[in-house]
Amino acid sequence: MLKGILNYSHYLLALSTQNGETVIDATCGNGNDTLFLSKKVGKEGHVLAFDIQDQAIKNAKALVEGHNCSNISFIHDSHVNVSEYLSSESKVGAAIFNLGYLPKSDKTIITQGESTISSIKSILGFLRQNGLIVIVVYHGHKGGKKEKEMILSYVMNLDQKKYHVLRYDFINQKNNPPFLLAIQKK
Ligand code: SAM
């Protein structure tokens, strides 16, 4: 009955995403969330999928091949620059961040608190009413604890008059299990 963290992230994205709208995969990695979002927003929608690693973009392109996903723009750039890829009138329905490193790859190339927060701030400026940002926080790796603490401190201080902020967490799991944060614009 209780969904695991990744299933719950897709459950929330499915609830919040509307057909035909623009959504963001801020850390596309192997492309699992990109593919999921592409199917959710449909042909008229648009997925912006960011990653700083060429290998990740290649893996993600290979994953979506054959799925008829012409609505995806793969962007080999940091999510910090997200506003450069949106127009000032753009509205974003949902975004997802999967923090940490590309699975089975270089564990030193990780998301960083400063850039993750800067990107979240940018996306909040484009988020439509009831739009959602989902952040899956992996923090067991080197550098993960620092990013976790920075992000928690940022989201816990978001104005409750403007945003609902949820933490979804399995509190009896050992070895730094990931947890989920979701920010919904009121
Ligand atoms: N959601 C992905 C999937 O389905 O495979 C997994 C993402 S993985 C945990 C994190 C990814 O974030 C890595 O591929 C890494 O290269 C990327 N990344 C790290 N810093 C980034 C940044 N500043 N902008 C965009 N992507 C970044």
TrEMBL record:
Listed InterPro entries: MnmM_MeTrfase (IPR010719), SAM-dependent_MTases_sf (IPR029063)
SUPFAM superfamilies found in the cross-reference section: S-adenosyl-L-methionine-dependent methyltransferases
Matches recorded under Pfam families: rRNA_methylase (PF06962)
Top-rank taxon, per record: Bacteria
Protein name per its UniProtKB record: 16S rRNA C1402 N4-methylase RsmH
